[in-house]
Amino acid sequence: MTSPLTALLPATERALLHRVATAQSEGRTPSLVAGVAREGGTVWSGARPSAEETRAADTQYRIGSITKTFTAVLVMRLRDEGLLDLGDPLEKHLPGTGVGEATIAQLLGHSAGLSAESPAPWWERTPGTLRPELADVLGEQTRMHPVGRRHHYSNPGYTLLGSLVSAVRGDTWENVLRNEILEPLALNRTSVEPQSPSAEGWAVHPWADVLIPEPSQDLGLMAPAGQLWSTVGDLCRFALFLAEGDERVLRAESVREMRTPSVPAEAGEWEATYGLGVQIVRSGGRTLVGHGGSLPGFLAGLWVSVEDGVAAAVLTNATSGPFPSLVAADLVRIVAEAEPRIPEPWRPLPEIDQELLALTGSWYWGTHSFVLRLCADRGLELRPLGGGGRGSGFVAGQDGQGGQDGVWTGQDGYFAGETLRVVRREDGSVQHLDLGSFVFTRQPYEPDAGVPGGVDSEGWRGLQP
């Protein structure tokens, strides 16, 4: 199932199986399945008990709130098509909810101030027919916090986003999901209802090795928050999509936007935050993007390290027990540390623009020294010399689309979104670089380079005792 170029070493596979076996045993779950992906596909899958291994990658488990990431992708598609803006209030597209002043971005990032759960009875263990209208999902006390002020996880918020998708598309959330994500990405084992083979959900007694089955409900309007069933094989493919994008579903720039923190972390939780439909954590010195999920009878975890190019999914069929998100993070770490990514070979640029080449080298912001490097596709990289400080990569064209109009747009760091442009003298020679009003010169405080405030006419000098 894997090629020699992507297959893992035997020692790595044993370490993965050991982690999975330990989690299943210590977590006391009827079964645990896991998968790891890199370089475009699943490279390992395993399960405990071992009887599950032959179909580990293809057995469906309920994935709970990982469903939210799928819903977020659908919303981002609407944005990319120009059918809505993330800054739009919900009321503009889904009127009459009573919470319409919250923006779509705030709903995606759980900063709309909505309640965490719908009114009783417990929505995860009761049929969605008990909540036939959005008002039944939201209840009377919809607002727990001021809009946009803090992160407060909200399941009803994603119900609203699912209804938004349905309203804008004029179709059910389920149909839109299947047509726009599942089929293009060939996630053939991901579905709203379970399809054989699928695991049965259990609750394990906390103080005895006995269990009882958990009910499996159709969540109705709450489906966009947690309905889906999937496999580790499908989830690994979906995780790679979250790292790389896919033009058939969502371009890489929009997926990268989803992976960008949208709200501040809670006090004391500086290692975790939330993007647009994805959780973002720091674990073992690496950034992981994905989501966890739980519903009665099931726990799920999905992470991808974009830098390492490694993803992992873990699914269990118990209400409590091992934490799949922690196990998945460990699986990513095991592979990334045992078999680090092989760098792409260095290659010279296929062609060169002499004017851009002339811009490279040292530049100064005041007395701070920087170096400007030329990259592929007329891109530039401006970084401080000697380590820390403000720097960014830049793409050509003010619109970020690779134009040749003499300006570049910052892509990361302090200057993300800022414009870098070349300022020339009347004779066409370069006077300085302007970066968001900062003047970069070839020499520190170069007298004729347009430094704001001017440069003292006497120039540099020593300090008399």
Automatic annotation (TrEMBL):
* Molecular function via GO: hydrolase activity
Q: Which residues form a coiled coil?
A: none
EC no. given is 3.-.-.-
List, alphabetically, the Pfam families matched. Beta-lactamase, DUF7586
Q: Domain Beta-lactamase-related: where?
A: 22-336
Task: Specify the DUF7586 domain's residue ranges.
Answer: 353-442
Region Disordered: what ranges? 446-465
What is the protein name for this chain?
Serine hydrolase domain-containing protein
Which organism is this protein's natural source? Answer: Streptomyces amakusaensis
